Every structure is written in structure tokens, then in C-alpha cells.
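wait is this the right file?? whatever heres the structure
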């Protein structure tokens, strides 16, 4: 293992506000909606433990949803759209050649002073966005605020009538990254790892653009989570029992159990909204952080760790103190 240290511990950067948006249509999964599925479904999904999921309509594009999540994040951070210097937009479910979603979202938001662009990284997109924004802060010392938006329509990337359709949903989440963290607060570290040898673990190919998972997905993802936790905790000199909240990207219930057991994470500190909102791609981490900040669970001083895995193969996470 390389001799690694936390990237941002002395940067003075902090996640100052969170926001989220759910589409208007809420679809309930009834008990009769649990099809047997195939061998891959059994290995990856197992028991259907998603009760409900949101499905976007034609008006609720990634930009439409992302702007509404961003407005909530900016309001919580006390930052206006015109004070945003950088906007990073993560999306993998509606990839197109041009134009990118970021400039469109910045225009709709009124953040016309911001440099805006897209990143992908599949379900690790939020980690990718925050890390990219933090890195660019180092080059642009006059910048004060960055906005990271993750907006996905995952419902469009699954085969209609499949078991996978029942465990994915649409949503947008956003976070403001600002200068001005107090000592020992703010963003401590980010790590994003790519491993092209795992590129066939999850694929989405033309012409249909439907997701296909390897039956080894859970074990591969659990191994990635273990490697990520080992490296990030070592980089920061932190133990898992010192972390107040583990907020992972939710893959499936099978994966959640495997990760908790592998890393010894108490269930009460392992937070997803998978059962109520399903797997929402790169939006999954910021929407949970937004919900936690609004219902009072996320308090000043809390230490948070946000691991994620995604097609590519990517895995990565953030470590930050509120």
C-alpha cells in the first residue's frame, strides 16, 4: 500500500449545505410485486426490500430535478446562485453527446458566473464531483463556493418488467462546498479508485441501454468497500468506531448486509434510504445527507464517511466533519 495521507484536512473546505428533490410520482411495491427473477437477480438482489420508489416524468429531466435540489442546498448554505464559482454535475443515466447538463443547470439556476461541466463515474459520481471541485479550489484561490449536483433517472436504465425495475428510482441531490472550515472540521479526505479489470461487473450497452450486472457483483463490491475503508481510515488515522455516520451509496440489500458484516459497522450508524427511495445512482449519498440534515440527525461535529461503488469499475468515498 502506498504511503497515503488525507487530501483536504488542511484545505479549509467544508460541505456547507445539502438539498434533494424527488419526482412527483411515488410508486409503491406491493408484496405481490416480488418476482422470482433469474440466477443473477437472486445473487445480486435477493429478497425485495424496497417498498417504494420515485419515477420522473418527461418534465423532470436531470437538469429540472438538479436545479431544485441545488436551490435547497444553496439556501441551507446561505449562498446565492450568483456566488457559485463552480458547478459540477454528475449523471450517468441520461448521458448524451452534447450539450452537457451542467451549463444548462447553471443557467436555469441563475449561476451564470460559474464554470459548469459534467462528470460521470456511474454511482460514484457524487464523490467524483466533490473531489473534482476540491481539486479546482486549489488552482483557483479566489473561488469561494462550488455546487455539486447529482441527478439521475435510474428508472430508464432497467428492463421493464424485470426485478431490477423494482429496486431503482429517480432523484437529485446537491451539496455546496465552501471555503471557511474551522480547525479539524470540514472535508478531510476523498478517494476515487478506478479498476478497468472490473469493467464487466456492471454494463449498460446500446441499443436498449438497460443495466446488466454480473452475479459476482456483491462480492466484488464488498471487496472494494473493504479496500476503500482500509485505505481511507489509514490515511486519516481514524478508526471505524470513531465515525458517527456511514452513508453509503445503496446497491442492494444483499450488498448492505455484506458490507456491514465485513467492516463491523453497527446497523444504527449505517444509513441509507434504500427501502423508501430505492437505488438512485449518484444522487443516493447527497439525498440521504440532505434528509439527515433536515430531520436533525446530522449535527455539527459529526464525522461522516460516504463510500460508493460504480460501474467502470470505480469505488471511492468522502470523509468529512459537519
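ok assuming it is, sequence goes like this
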Amino acid at each position: 500500500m502506498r504511503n497515503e495521507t488525507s487530501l483536504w484536512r488542511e484545505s479549509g473546505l467544508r460541505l456547507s449545505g445539502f438539498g434533494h428533490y424527488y419526482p412527483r410520482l411515488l410508486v409503491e411495491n406491493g408484496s405481490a410485486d416480488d418476482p422470482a427473477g433469474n440466477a443473477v437477480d437472486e445473487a445480486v438482489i435477493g429478497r425485495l426490500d424496497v417498498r417504494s420508489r420515485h419515477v420522473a416524468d418527461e418534465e423532470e429531466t436531470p437538469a429540472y430535478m438538479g436545479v431544485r435540489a441545488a436551490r435547497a442546498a444553496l439556501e441551507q448554505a446561505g449562498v446565492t446562485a450568483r456566488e457559485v464559482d463552480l458547478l459540477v454535475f454528475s449523471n450517468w443515466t441520461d448521458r448524451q453527446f452534447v450539450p452537457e447538463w451542467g451549463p444548462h443547470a447553471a443557467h436555469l439556476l441563475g449561476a451564470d458566473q460559474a464554470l459548469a461541466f459534467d462528470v460521470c463515474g456511474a454511482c460514484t459520481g457524487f464523490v467524483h464531483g466533490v473531489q473534482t471541485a476540491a481539486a479546482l479550489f486549489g488552482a483557483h484561490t479566489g473561488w469561494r463556493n462550488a455546487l455539486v449536483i447529482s441527478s439521475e433517472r435510474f428508472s430508464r436504465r432497467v428492463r421493464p418488467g424485470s426485478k431490477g425495475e423494482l429496486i431503482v428510482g429517480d432523484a437529485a441531490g446537491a451539496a455546496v462546498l465552501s471555503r471557511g472550515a474551522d480547525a479539524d472540521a470540514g472535508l478531510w479526505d476523498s478517494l476515487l479508485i478506478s479498476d478497468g479489470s472490473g469493467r464487466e461487473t456492471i454494463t449498460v450497452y446500446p441499443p436498449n441501454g438497460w443495466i446488466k450486472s454480473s452475479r459476482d457483483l456483491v462480492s466484488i463490491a464488498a471487496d472494494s468497500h473493504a479496500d476503500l475503508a482500509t485505505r481511507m481510515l489509514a490515511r486519516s488515522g481514524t478508526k471505524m468506531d470513531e465515525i458517527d455516520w456511514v452513508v453509503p451509496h445503496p446497491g442492494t440489500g444483499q450488498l448492505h448486509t455484506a458490507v456491514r458484516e465485513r467492516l463491523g459497522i453497527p446497523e444504527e450508524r449505517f444509513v441509507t434510504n434504500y427501502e423508501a427511495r430505492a437505488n438512485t445512482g449518484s444522487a443516493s449519498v447527497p439525498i440521504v445527507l440532505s434528509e439527515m440534515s433536515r430531520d436533525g440527525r446530522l449535527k455539527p461535529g459529526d464525522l461522516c464517511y460516504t463510500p460508493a461503488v460504480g460501474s467502470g469499475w470505480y469505488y471511492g468515498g468522502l470523509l468529512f466533519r459537519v
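The CA atoms of residues 168 and 233 lie 30 Å apart. so i think its the right one actually
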